[in-house]
């Protein structure tokens, strides 16, 4: 049977290609264009090559924001992933309570990011907020509006409250997919609760945990709305993460060239770290095939 080629079929994928170009390639190329030029007045551009990239990479302000961003992401992952797995393990597997728990876990994810920031802004106020008033009543010196440590504590607590549910739901889905035969075999062998978790549940949840870690890394590394609404990047620059610093450079200072170069570096770093995460976490799986 002779196989014929019909190049007209490419026209069927043309709408998808145009959509991808409109949503990703064209905006990205626009940012690249901004990063290579200097704008003095509207409509007048001066080619500067890679100067903006060099300025950003040698900027102490950029380094400080990057360190804060990595520190925040590391703390978030270190808290939310183990906590999410622990909550998923404690949830009932069947019955009405399982549905109730799933609904309760999903509720924080349904709240818009700016609303979360506004809620915690009021909730943590030292004079009238329940959290702030409660901590000060217990003897803690807490005021997130002028204490960097308190601001970090509040931002981290807010993110844990908002996003641990995502890890819980993914881990719970992984636990539900484990065949009951594994548990029956473990029971016959007299395996302890820890042995069941170490040798059955954890390996079976590996794929969903990789997805959970990747999603939480990407989101926490690009976090903007919640901390901006809560602290505005303060006190001082204590919670000025990379995304907030980028917006300050672009909108506050109207330094488009520097902001565009920072955006490209930010994008490439996120892409690189995601690739490293995925490669390291799937290495064992590929080796076993």
TrEMBL record:
Signal peptide, first to last residue: none
Domain of life of the organism in this record?
Answer: Bacteria
Specify whether Chaperone is a keyword of the entry.
Answer: no
The membrane spanning regions, by residue number, are 12-36, 70-90, 97-123, 151-175, 207-225, 256-278
Q: Cite the Pfam families for this sequence.
A: BPD_transp_1
| Bilayer disposition of the protein | Multi-pass membrane protein
Which BP terms does GO give this entry?
A: transmembrane transport
User: What are the residue boundaries of the ABC transmembrane type-1 domain, all occurrences included?
Assistant: 66-277
Q: Where in the cell is it found?
A: Cell membrane
Primary localisation category? membrane
One GO location term (cellular component): plasma membrane
Provide the alphabetized UniProt keywords: Membrane, Transmembrane, Transmembrane helix, Transport
* Family to which this protein belongs: Belongs to the binding-protein-dependent transport system permease family.
> What name appears for this protein in its UniProt entry?
ABC transporter permease
Tell me which species this is from.
Acuticoccus sediminis
């Amino acid at each position: 049977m002779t196989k014929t080629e019909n190049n007209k079929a490419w026209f069927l994928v043309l709408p998808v290609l145009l959509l991808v170009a409109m949503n990703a390639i064209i905006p990205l190329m626009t940012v690249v264009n901004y990063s290579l030029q200097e704008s003095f007045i509207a409509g007048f551009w001066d080619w500067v090559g890679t100067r903006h990239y060099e300025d950003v990479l040698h900027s102490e302000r950029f380094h400080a924001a990057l360190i804060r961003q990595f520190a925040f992401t590391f703390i978030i992952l270190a808290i939310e992933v183990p906590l999410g797995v622990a909550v998923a393990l404690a949830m009932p597997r069947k019955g009405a309570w399982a549905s109730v728990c799933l609904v309760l876990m999903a509720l924080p994810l349904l709240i818009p990011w700016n609303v979360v920031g506004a809620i915690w802004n009021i909730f943590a106020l030292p004079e009238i907020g329940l959290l702030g008033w409660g901590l000060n009543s217990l003897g803690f010196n807490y005021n997130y509006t002028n204490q960097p440590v308190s601001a970090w504590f509040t931002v981290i607590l807010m993110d844990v409250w908002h996003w641990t549910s995502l890890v819980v739901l993914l881990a719970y889905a992984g636990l539900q997919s484990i065949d009951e035969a594994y548990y029956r075999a473990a029971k016959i062998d007299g395996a302890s609760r820890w042995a069941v978790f170490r040798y059955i549940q954890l390996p079976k949840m590996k794929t969903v945990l990789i997805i959970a870690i990747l999603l939480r890394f990407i989101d926490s590394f690009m976090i903007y709305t919640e901390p901006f609404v809560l602290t505005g990047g303060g006190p001082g620059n204590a919670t000025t993460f990379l995304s907030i610093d980028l917006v300050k450079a672009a909108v506050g200072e109207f330094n488009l060239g520097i902001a565009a170069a920072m955006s490209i570096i930010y994008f490439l770093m996120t892409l690189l770290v995601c690739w490293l995460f995925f490669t390291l976490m799937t290495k064992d799986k590929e080796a076993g095939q």
